[in-house]
Design a protein that fits this description.
Blueprint: H1 12-29, H2 34-61, H3 67-90, H4 92-125
Helix pairs in contact: 1-2, 1-4, 2-3, 2-4, 3-4
């Protein structure tokens, strides 16, 4: 599933990471097998950790002016994912509800409100 135009930032590595995340999310939404769903959930968390680490290294390297807010957002999103993953280990429906009803909106808002600022900054400073 290609990333929607409104979510493209025209920074290649960011668009690629977002596309990969979207593919994992799409696969999770269509997954009917609970063990496979949990594997994908774990994969999504690991992908997100790597994604955030990449962004955070660039924010440090280029002295991004709004780094702390971006870091706070990363911490919040990742903590939430881990919370729902842990709950889903006991009650799979809990995790599926998070994925099906909230995760994409959080992903979209993060790109539009937070990552877009970093992308604009990187285009001007790289």
């Amino acid at each position: 599933m290609p990333i929607q135009n409104e979510l493209k930032l025209n920074v290649a590595f960011m668009d690629e990471l977002h596309h990969e995340f979207e593919e994992i999310l799409d696969e999770m939404k269509n997954c009917k097998d609970n063990p496979k769903f949990m594997q994908l959930f774990f994969k999504m968390i690991e992908h997100t950790k790597n994604h955030f680490k990449t962004e955070e290294e660039l924010m440090t390297k280029y002295d991004f002016y709004d780094k702390q807010e971006h870091l706070n957002e990363h911490e919040s999103l990742l903590s939430e994912m881990i919370y729902f993953y842990e709950k889903a280990q006991k009650i799979p429906l809990f995790g599926k509800s998070y994925i099906n009803e909230y995760a994409y909106d959080k992903f979209r808002r993060h790109i539009l409100n937070i990552d877009s600022q970093l992308a604009m900054f990187l285009k001007e400073n790289q």
